[in-house]
Design brief:
It contains 13 helices and 75 strands. By secondary structure, it is mainly beta. Helix 8 packs parallel to helix 9 (337-349). The longest helix has 18 residues, at 432-449. It is globular and about 105 Å long. Pfam families: Peptidase_S8 (PF00082). Residues 221-480 form the Peptidase S8/S53 domain. Belongs to the peptidase S8 family.
Length: 1101
């Protein structure tokens, strides 16, 4: 069963997500001898992601957010919200599925997807698709998508699904169906989750747990299987020789399970089972004779959730009594796939999952999957038994006790993998990752003592007999520090590991007493009388008010072979502090002392806010509610007609609130309503009635230009982290594009500014050299969200831009123009597919002095097997009355070096490779559907290879000469069909932080026509620009060559220097049609070189 019932369809998108959200992490280990840093929130930094639907969202360096439809989806519009670092963008055709609970909200959390993609160094779309009844049909839908792949996850009745970014739109069409009103998941599919990432979070520490006393009793773990699911285990280490009974890798790119380049898994494994052979027995692990199962679920510090589920399933099916998970990530409302797997596998296989609580420092920050009911959640203490600052504290979001136990996790010295950075047989790490294997090893000793016990028995005994640190709250340490010596002597067990009360909602003056049973099991042959003591308090150690918590008896006698219970009653109507209360019931008898932790949440002042959404006919509609408080925490609720209306549980305060009403009849326009300052001070129902809205109507000089779409984007600047909203819609037959209205008082809000953007198009023209026209209009409305919007635009208010878009061989494409005003805001582009080549006249309105337009193109087919090429320009201003001429999609497309995006970076023991490969001849940033490989050599010997164009490899310490070869191919592109780049440099990985090796890129900018061709037989002059990551200064040499036979033969080009990094060359084009390929070599004064080759850089003829 889920660990907490979900009584509403609303979810908070703030606190937990701002602290890390989707990036799940094995509780990250810190560098040697240092405690781990707080896991940073996923930053909404510059970058772009592809959503599950195939649509693309860019987060700009200034915080602005731009959404664009994917291939074949040019009419798609979006709902968006940004608050601080959190960014949410939902395509319109996903709203109904989200409302039905069929889509994970994280699928649209752009900041989280961006963080996951950076961790993986991949932009592939990765999903977990629940398919309990129709897995075969679902797998067929996935594998029918070019590039799609599916792996079964039977533990949770799901599939792990992946597809390249260019195939995401086809995947979306494969797993969903258009019913004419709203999209639905295809038959047999239950829910789609994001396949997120989790992060991998002994001579003194082992005796601290009481292990030597257990060893003296003859316990060493013999005959017990313990699985370590981590970064792999170096079984060649002397401390682990002969201990690994089975090994397997999971996921798509984890590699050999016996290779641990991170070092985390080996360190963890030796804490469980190390013999101490490399230290004459001093650094022996907790249970040195266990049989280890090595499940490699992490390719680096980051681990795919689907791989973790696969590893958990394998470990349980292999007969592991104990599974160590030194990994995790932020907890979310409800039961996520990892929590589901922990609970299900624990019940089916009687396995105990011991899981790191996380390294997030604060209260209420315990990470998933340690938050699963069946998991044993582990905090970290230092050598004196004090909880470390970094260890995540409880309680769970519903008031349940998590973490439940603690163990040494600071400066733990254990085995070092030979493949990881450093030297010597041992290394020091800190984190709850290091605490967890101490508890897993203790559980193995207990399992050897009691082979008949289930995982739940092991958990109850370990928690009950833990040793508390005086003055430390249960919120931080659970029952206390693991004491395996006491646990193996246990003569009485609690009936449950902890006692958890349901959350007590505000207000509390009418709270009724709630009772739960504290139970004790006596497996012995003589009765035991236990004296009971109850201690409850807040996280800061303040005792609970008198009378708030009471036991029904001060002692209880447990007859042999029976269970006895005592009622514990919570009376939260008693006046006292709000928040989480936790404590213990301590039971003592001669030779017996055990504790049962207790947790309850006495809710702060919050109220139920119910949202009722109506369409413009007064009928129930599909509703989406977005709210943001003054601190930037975001909340979302969704609803469907005929289903219970959504409830938000909100703290007292003022919220920016947006309501989207989407008629069940998909042919009618949606309505967008905003209450700029909705005050929550009581339980209430909001009726978002679209009948108050009015249409957006604009008139332009060309009356036959039709609306393509309208964007309404309010931004609030009266809060520490600015909140921005966005809603876009496209016209429906016989109606306006959008209806809009402001709820609440008709007053001006000085900190509110709304951008209204309207896109119009008349694409018809004269064929190949089409002269269609479009209008791009934007206005700033100060102090309000307009209720209806009507404007007439005259010609003298407009700038005129002649836009000439060349053909790159993909047949069709779209151009998007997005308005940006002043403070970072959200916007989206609306377009439709147009033929290539294409010339059009575009008119731009600049209503505000700080208005800028960002323009992009997206080239690609609408076929299922979509190839995509996009280019992105920087924002610019168009002055009214002026004319402009712009050329797009001209080569040479190729590698680039950008100030914020170096092709190669080196960290401690790692090299990250992710070059920009598709910038155009004008210097616009490019992206697209690329395939290729990366090969890295160190001092001439191959160090590693990647089968995708972004990735990470481990590198040894010390200075060496590196060669990084990147080969990229663009299928279906007529020009720049292949690039080959070699970055050669001398560098050592840093001891900490990150360095950027010197690298270069060469941009060729020939004058090309609308087919990317240069005239046959013509003599041409070509500008050349050298970009560099290193410090400015004169280069040692720059050379260039040209080939007219696809690189079989080359001729030198004479470069003329025109300034810093700028050159030109002249060349005579052949008389026959064909292609020109280009090669350049750049060498700096330090001997670092970049060799860049572009095959079929442009056409001849």
């Amino acid at each position: 069963m889920p660990h907490r019932s979900r009584t509403t369809t609303a979810a908070a998108l703030g606190a937990a997500l701002l602290g890390g959200g989707l990036a799940a992490a094995p509780a990250a280990a810190a560098p040697p001898a240092r405690p781990p840093a707080a896991r940073p929130a996923p930053a909404a930094a510059a970058g772009a992601v592809t959503l599950l639907t195939g649509d693309r969202v860019e987060v700009r360096a200034d915080g602005g957010v731009v959404a664009r439809p994917g291939p074949g989806r040019t009419g798609m519009t979006f709902v968006g919200q940004r608050a601080g670092r959190s960014v949410l963008v939902i395509p319109r055709d996903a709203v109904s599925l989200l409302a039905a609970g069929k889509l994970d909200q994280r699928l649209f959390r752009v900041d989280e997807i961006l963080a996951a993609n950076r961790a993986r160094r991949s932009d592939a779309v990765r999903l977990i698709v629940a398919a309990p009844a129709g897995a075969a049909a679902a797998r067929a839908a996935v594998t029918a998508t070019p590039g799609g792949a599916a792996r079964p996850l039977p533990a949770i009745g799901a599939l792990a699904v992946s597809a390249g970014a260019g195939q995401a739109a086809a995947l979306w069409r494969g797993i969903t169906a258009d019913t004419g009103q709203a999209r639905q998941l295809r038959g047999g599919l239950g829910k789609v989750w994001l396949d997120g990432v989790r992060q991998v979070s002994l001579d003194k520490s082992v005796p601290q747990t009481g292990a030597p006393a257990a060893w003296a009793a003859g316990l060493d773990g013999a005959g017990v299987k313990v699985a370590v699911l981590d970064t792999g285990v170096d079984a060649t280490h002397p401390d682990l020789a002969g201990r690994v009974a089975a090994a397997r890798s999971f996921g798509t790119d984890t590699g050999d399970p016996g290779v641990d380049k991170v070092g985390h898994g080996t360190h963890v494994a030796s804490t469980v089972a190390g013999s101490g052979a490399a230290s004459q027995g001093r650094r022996k692990g907790m249970a040195p004779q266990v049989s280890l199962l090595n499940g490699k679920v992490c390719a680096s510090e980051m681990c795919d959730e689907s791989a973790i589920v696969e590893g958990m399933t394998w470990a349980a099916e292999q007969g592991a009594r104990v599974v160590n998970l030194s990994l995790g990530g932020s907890d979310t409302i409800g039961e996520d796939p990892l929590e589901q797997a922990v609970n299900g596998l624990s019940a089916r296989h009687r396995t105990l999952f011991v899981v790191a609580a996380g390294n997030s420092y604060g209260l209420g920050q315990v990470g998933s999957p340690s938050t699963a009911d069946a998991a044993l959640s582990v905090a970290a203490v230092d050598g004196a038994g004090q909880v470390t600052a970094f260890s995540s504290k409880g309680l769970r979001e519903d008031g349940a006790v998590k973490p439940e136990i603690a163990a040494p996790g600071l400066d733990i010295n254990a085995a070092r993998s030979a493949q990881s950075p450093g030297s010597g047989p041992y290394t020091t790490m800190s984190g709850t990752s290091m605490a967890t294997p101490h508890v897993a090893g203790a559980a193995a000793l207990l399992a050897q003592r009691h082979p008949e016990w289930t995982g739940d028995h092991l958990k109850r005994a370990l928690v009950a007999y833990a040793k508390p640190t005086v003055g430390t709250a249960v919120h931080a340490q659970g029952a206390g520090q693991v004491d395996v010596a006491a646990a193996v002597r246990a003569s009485v067990l609690p009936g449950t590991a902890s006692v958890n009360f349901p959350r007590q909602l505000w207000p509390h003056d009418d709270d009724q007493p709630v009772s739960r049973s504290v139970s004790y099991v006596n497996p012995g042959t003589a009765p035991v009388t236990l004296a009971l003591r109850l201690d409850m308090g807040t996280a800061d150690g303040t005792p609970a008010p008198s009378g708030m918590f009471t036991l029904a008896a001060s002692q209880v006698t447990v007859a042999p072979g029976t269970t006895a219970t005592v009622d514990l009653t919570a009376r939260t109507a008693v006046e006292g502090a709000l928040g989480d209360y936790a404590g213990t019931v301590t039971a003592t008898a001669p030779g017996v002392s055990l504790r049962t932790p207790v947790g309850i949440q006495r809710d702060s002042e919050r109220y139920d806010v119910t949202v009722r959404t109506l369409d413009r006919d007064g009928l129930p509609a599909v509703g989406l509610t977005l709210m943001a408080d003054m601190a930037g925490q975001m909340f979302m609720a969704t609803s469907r007609p005929g289903v219970d209306q959504p409830q938000l549980r909100l703290a007292k305060g003022t919220f920016a609130a947006a309501f989207i009403s989407i008629p069940v009849d998909g042919t009618k326009p949606a309505a967008f309503m905003v209450h700029p300052a909705y005050r929550v001070s009581r339980t209430t129902t909001i009726t978002a009635d679209a009948r108050i809205t009015r249409p957006v109507v604009t008139r332009v000089p060309h009356a036959d230009a039709r609306d393509l779409g309208v964007v309404m984007a309010p931004t609030f600047t009266d809060r520490p982290s600015e909140t921005a909203l966005m809603f876009g819609d496209s016209p429906r037959p016989g109606g306006a594009s959008m209806y809009v209205g402001q709820l609440g008082p008709k007053i001006s809000y000085p900190h509110l500014r709304t951008m209204v953007q309207v896109t119009k198009l008349h694409p018809e023209g004269d064929g190949r050299r089409n002269r269609g026209y479009g209008y791009n209009l934007a206005w700033a409305v100060q102090g309000r969200v307009p209720t209806g919007f009507a404007r007439t635009v005259s010609g003298d208010q407009l700038a005129t831009v002649t836009t000439d878009i060349a053909d790159v061989g993909l047949g069709t494409g779209a151009k998007f123009n997005m308005a940006q005003m002043g403070t970072p805001m959200m916007s989206m582009g609306v377009s439709e597919a147009l033929p290539r080549p294409y010339v059009m006249t575009e008119y731009f309105l600049n209503d505000s002095p700080d208005l800028r337009w960002q323009s992009d193109t997206m080239e690609g087919t609408i076929a299922e097997d979509a190839t995509m090429l996009g280019t992105m320009d920087t924002p610019r201003r168009y002055e009214p009355g002026r004319g402009y001429f712009e050329k797009w999609n001209r080569g040479v497309f190729g590698p680039a070096v950008r100030s914020d995006d170096a092709p190669v970076r080196m960290g401690q023991g790692t090299m990250s490779i992710c070059p920009a490969l598709l910038d155009d001849g004008a210097g616009r940033a490019g992206f697209g559907t690329l395939a290729g490989t990366v090969t890295v050599r160190r001092d001439g010997a191959e160090l590693g290879r990647l089968d995708e164009l972004c990735g990470q490899l481990p590198v040894p310490a010390g200075t060496a000469r590196y060669e990084v070869d990147v080969v990229a191919r663009m299928r279906d592109l007529a020009v720049s069909t292949e690039t080959r780049t070699r970055y050669a440099f001398t560098q050592a990985p840093p001891a900490q932080g990150e360095v950027t090796p010197d690298a270069a890129a060469v941009r060729f900018s020939p004058a090309l026509d609308d087919r990317n061709a240069s005239p046959r037989g013509a003599r041409i002059e070509v500008p050349v620009l050298v970009q560099r990551t290193g410090a400015p200064g004169r280069l040692k040499s720059v050379t260039a060559q040209v080939s007219y036979d696809d690189g079989r033969t080359w001729a030198g080009l004479e470069l003329t220097r025109r300034g810093d990094g700028r050159y030109t060359y002249q060349a005579q084009n052949p008389a026959a049609p064909g292609f020109a390929s280009l090669r350049a070599v750049v060498t700096d004064q330090a001997g670092n070189t970049t060799e860049q080759t572009t095959i079929r850089a442009y056409r001849i003829g």
